[in-house]
Amino acid sequence: MNNRIYFVLAFLVACSLSSCSASKKKASPSAAAPVRVLPTLPESELYLPVKVVIKPFLKHAESLAPRELTSTGWPEYFQTGCDFRYKYRFIRSAFQFTCVNNRVQVNMSGVYQIAGSKTVCAMGQPVYPWVGGSCGFGNEPMRKVNITLRSDLQFTPDYRLRTVTRAEKVQAVDRCLVTLFKTDVTQQVLDSIAASINAFGKSVDAMVSGINFDNYLQPIAEKAGKKIPLSTYGYMKLNASAVRLGAVNYSGDTLRFTAGVSCYPEVSSDSINYSVTRHLPPLTGTTSGNGFNLTANAKYDYTTIDTLLTKTLRNREFEVKGEKIRIVSVNVRGLDGYKVEFRIQFTGTKRGTLFLKGTPELDTALQVLSVPDLEYDLNSSSLALQLGKTFFSRKILENLRNQARINVTELYTKNKSRIDSQFNRIITDGVTLQGSTQGLKLTGLVINRDNVQVQANLKGNAGLVISNIP
């Protein structure tokens, strides 16, 4: 996005030099007067789908829950009072994990066996032999039970994850009735299992609250809080104003949610950080949406433009009426009246310096950048003496004006793969950015004596993949 104006200016010069032998075309009508002030910068919105691979985390969470639960003192009886005692063993299955709109549900099945016995007490002492019964021992199959564990997720403003985990349902498929005393001991077993599950839930909550996201967030926050180098094309500052998170859902061993970011991005050729922020804005509310819609103001000094144009056009050869010339360097400077001057040094059959000047104009509706008043600067007298009137032909000049038109949409299409590459890279260890762009538009252009200002809008889709949790 930030290098569009560079390509526009570079192609403008290239087209002007290479089109001298092109056929005559009808001149386009003059565009509207150039915008002197960029449009007000709107707030940009990014909706980033985030995928968190949590299979290792789930394995760790399941390892915290014992496969087998037993009564106190197993295999001995646990006496709850003078006249009753029991013992049980519960074996669970693997976890079945789901998450819909921030509500996590863990389902598991299991089997249990229980034995209980009663007696008669007097003055707190057994006075009758223990008489018992059992379920699931010997040749008798163990009884079945289904368990549901629920946990509600909540992100705090400081990017911590908070959970509240508890047993939602412990349901006996097969109840155990000790018939001798007509005592149904199933509920006592279920209550004990539920207590163990709730204790496990608290350990999960403690583990989740201890997860440290700073390893991922801090590098992102520091990059977003200051200017980011963009190769030779300047520096960008995101200027994030708000961050929101959508509901968390789970599928295919992956947690999925959408992060919404509001920002006012700026691009410049100046690397100085006049202000630096080291933290992301606090999380506020929820979000929903798709893709990103970025509008950024860019400001480039002419020295930066000179460097890129020279790098782009140096050693390029053109033929003008049989005269071969090769570009040595290109310099651009701003003039009064929103004009620019191109100073092109060349060598070849002839040597010299060519001066072109004009007023770049942007047609935002057609997405066309042109210089309808492009003229030779008659100060190029030394060139005139060397090449005669060839370069100063009005016919050629009119052709230059027609050819010196840049279709921004076509330019974007040609360079789309290069732009998209910026949306497919590793942000930090374990965090990858994936995405592509869908369209680029220029929404404003101001030519000043000291700099060129551009406002550009870029649309597309991007997402983050977190491959491991610290």
Automatic annotation (TrEMBL):
Protein name, UniProt field: DUF4403 family protein
One Pfam family from the record: DUF4403
Signal peptide interval: 1-21
Species per Swiss-Prot/TrEMBL record: Flavihumibacter solisilvae
Signal among keywords: yes
UniProt-listed InterPro entries: DUF4403
Keyword terms of this UniProt record: Signal
Top-level taxonomic group: Bacteria
